[in-house]
Amino acid sequence: MTTSHPPRPRSAGRRPAAARLGHWPLGLLVCLLAACSALQPPPTLTPAAPTATLATPDPLGTAQTFLSAWERGDYAGMYSLLSPLSQDAVAPADFQARYLDLAGTAAVTAIQTQTFNTLKSGTNASVLFEVTVRSALFGEITRRITMPLVYTGGGWAVAWTDGLILPEMAGGGTLSVQASFPARGNIYDRNGLGLAVQGEAVAIGVQPGLIQDEAALLAAVAPLLGQSPEALRAKYADARPDWYVPLGEANANDVQAHLAALNQLPGLILRNYPTRFYPLGGAAPQVVGYLGAVPPERLAEYQALGYTGDERVGQAGLEAWGEAYLAGSRGGTLSVVFPDGRAVPLAERQRQPAQAITTTLDRDLQLAVQQALAGFRGAIIILDPATGAVLAMASSPTFDPNLFDPTNPNSAQLAEVLADPDNRLLNRATQSAYPPGSVFKIPVMGAAMLSGLYTRETVVNCGNVWNGLGPSALKYNWTYGTNIKPPGKITLVQALQTSCNPYFYTIALDLDGFNPDFLPQVARQFGLGAFTQVGQVAEAPGLVPDPAWKQSTYADAWRPGDSVNMGIGQGYVLVTPLQVAEMIAAVRNGGTLYRPQLVQKIAPPGGEPTYTFQPIVNGQLPLAADQLQAIREGLHAVTSEPGGTARHRFLNLGIPVAGKTGTAQNNAGLPHSWFAGYTEAEQPDRPDIAGVVIVENGGEGSDVAAPLFRRIVELYFLGRPATLLPWETDFGVAGGLTPASSVTPTPTPAP
């Protein structure tokens, strides 16, 4: 791209000081003096009169002040130091525009100056200085320039010309850049499948009144968009016959392969456009992100990096985090152009190719997880517990990142997405903090054993009612009011298996008496209440409260009831799904809190990777081997032993699963439904997984979250669902891991 500006007025030139000296030949002058002395009598010796001298300040100070203001970008301060003639020749706005032209066109990051010798003759002076222009595009441009100054109004002023910016600009030259931009790098899944790619896309829509063979149309379009015919039909069910209804976007090559058949379907509308394309409506869009215009408030920042300002740049997720890799290094030629067409090259830089980002995500699994979560508000995260690599991270409701391209014929839908009160752009997997409910009983059990007050065999009575805080503060087991009989006297391992509230109330009360800070400290050692440092996506820290926090936040003392509430994951405690996923993965792998990571490698086209995934340890669970084993036995019993809160959800699965249900009370309706778990298949060709499911206001953890976790295990190990979800009438898939159904589930949580 070429930028140019009209010539700016130049200040009136001044005759050099040397030109104002006399022109008498030296020999003639000597002869005249000699002749005069021969004709005149010897002079009378009288004291010589003092020679008049001009008492002026040092012009170097003015020059240094002028250059220092340039380094700071203080153009008004620079202008104030110009001579009256220079100010008459160039207006303040034009003066500033000349320097801003350099800063913007050359992507200047800094100006550095240094002064050298000063020459002064009467009311004229000159200062030699060196300027180094540091450019994000062209490196360093260094020039030595002589600055003329004049003495006027009791001080020195700069006799300014264009050449004081750069010598090549003298005479009214303006800067121009012939820019060269590399293609944006792609984002891939772990298997090389595209998540964000540069290319041609096709916006697909329908005009309902023109459809003749609806079944054939939907059957042809559904595989291209990764949606079920039922979901596509629902989009235009209430539309007028003459409306254009967008269905989604597809890769142009995929459409081209079926173009002849597609063109024979009345009512189907195809529109090609070049774009940054997110296949299948966006896999993990809250993770991958999207592109948008450079925000006005950040324009100067991007220009300093070599952007022209009219590019589309990463706005969230990996697109924003990896902007420096994905955008590559811009190149081009910087020249000074004159009104007569002359061009004087100043600097040149070759563009450097962008780098592609390969993620740890599995696109097929990711899309299947998104489909399983469709219709709910919540999140699902699946990790490799041996490394912390994120295999899937879904947040629902989701959005189509293709809509952010204004050239997309379907982009009118973006307004609806942005106006959705459910906040589709929010990554609930990392940015939302929830009360954890009974999932928090995992670190509570750990704290009980670490305190020395409990062992795995400690017996406590588990009934429907608990009165540990007195008869006026009764608390209840989750079995209260149901036809489920509480288990009675049970061990600590059985307490985790049955999720017995009275047992964990008792633990929390005992730990409060032992040390009110002890349980919060242990919970933090389980990775809760702090950033996981995943890095590529925004995250919330969560909250593990303690007495000091409550005092500073509410000016109120910590009470035993606060500990008791925390004992079952209620009260003030908040966690993110990613923190819970990191914790449950550590339980599976033997106690190591691996940092969740989303990037597998970063590499230029055909080049060696500049980054390769390596596991990073965030910490260790503070448990001895036998203590961790007790927790693992309790989690395994949850899904496999009578009395386990999720046993009925994992019957006949054929793949061993361990985990913990959670039902978290909140102020917005039904409880949040949690399940955190892992597999114990230990298959040589299929690594085990760990993960978490949360459904906002979904009800009991065993009713919604646990069945969803089972579905994911089936998809991961079998490649297809093997059992119906409680709210399904069919499997909702067309085979493999590619989802085909987006029918909104209507869960009915149990009491």
Q: Could you walk me through the main structural features you see in this protein, from its secondary elements to its overall organization?
A:
With 751 residues, the protein is an alpha+beta fold. Among the domains are: 54-175, NTF2-like, domain 1 (Nuclear Transport Factor 2, Chain: A); 363-401 and 626-718, Beta-Lactamase; 431-617, Beta-lactamase. The chain contains 25 helices and 27 strands. Strands 6, 7, 8, 9, 14, 22 and 23 form a 7-stranded mixed β-sheet that branches. It has a 5-stranded antiparallel β-sheet with strand order 16-15-27-26-25, with helices on both faces. The protein has a 4-stranded antiparallel β-sheet with strand order 1-2-3-4. α17 crosses α20 and α18 (492-498) runs parallel beside α24. The radius of gyration is 37 Å and the shape is globular. The two termini are 65 Å apart. Residues 1-55 and 733-751 have low confidence and may be disordered.
Short description:
Helices cover 30% and strands 22% of the residues. With 751 residues, the chain is an alpha+beta fold.
User: What's the number of extended β-strand segments?
Assistant: 27
Computed Rg: 37 Å
Number of helices: 25
Q: What's the rounded overall pLDDT mean?
A: 88
**CATH C-level name of the domain at 431-617:** Alpha Beta
Helix and strand content put the structural class at alpha+beta
Keywords:
751 residues, Beta-lactamase, Beta-Lactamase, single chain, Nuclear Transport Factor 2, Chain: A, seven-stranded mixed β-sheet, alpha+beta, disordered C terminus
